[in-house]
Specification:
Layout: E1 2-5, H1 7-14, H2 21-33, E2 38-42, H3 43-49, H4 52-55, H5 58-73, E3 77-80, H6 86-96, H7 109-119, E4 127-129, H8 137-143, E5 146-148
Parallel strand pairs: 1-2, 1-4, 2-3, 4-5
Length: 152
């Protein structure tokens, strides 16, 4: 199973002070240590995860390197490139401003790129781990991608 991850999951996984750290650790162990699923990370998620804050925490960055290296050695890590989706996602951000009433949806550029990746059948994704269910629920439902959150 190809399991895509959101930045909130990776941040919780590598920041022991995060309120969902234990949940993230348990999910990682269940899906990637105990099972043979493939971890799929969109490049924009890496940019968001390895922020200035994480870059300053060498212990967190070292743990991430260890896990990614281990999965890569087992051929269970892949990265999704965003180049073809950047312009479309940025256009969607600006188009959203034109919506009237309560239909405006404040999604980050990163979330819009990931949504486009989830919608692309060529990526053959089976699941998404996120702690921000509302940002992705509609696209996961439409593509029949399992949504995994803090409730499992």
């Amino acid at each position: 199973m190809k399991v895509c991850v959101d930045a909130c999951f990776l941040i919780a996984l590598y920041d022991s002070r995060d309120g969902l750290h234990g949940v993230a650790e348990a999910l990682f162990e269940k899906l990637f240590d105990s099972a043979t699923h493939e971890l799929v990370i969109p490049w924009p998620i890496l940019y968001e995860t390895v922020s200035t804050r994480m870059a300053r925490r060498s212990d967190s960055l070292g743990l991430m390197e260890r896990d990614l290296k281990r999965l890569r050695q087992r051929n269970r890590l892949s990265m999704l490139f965003d180049r073809k989706m950047r312009e479309q996602a940025l256009g969607e951000c600006f188009e959203e401003l034109k919506k009237q009433g309560g239909s405006y949806r404040a999604l980050s550029l990163v979330d819009r790129v990931v949504r486009l990746m989830l919608l692309n059948p060529k990526n053959r994704l089976h699941a998404l781990i996120t702690f921000n269910r509302g940002d992705f629920e509609d696209v996961c439902r439409s593509r029949k991608i399992q949504l995994i959150d803090q409730h499992g």
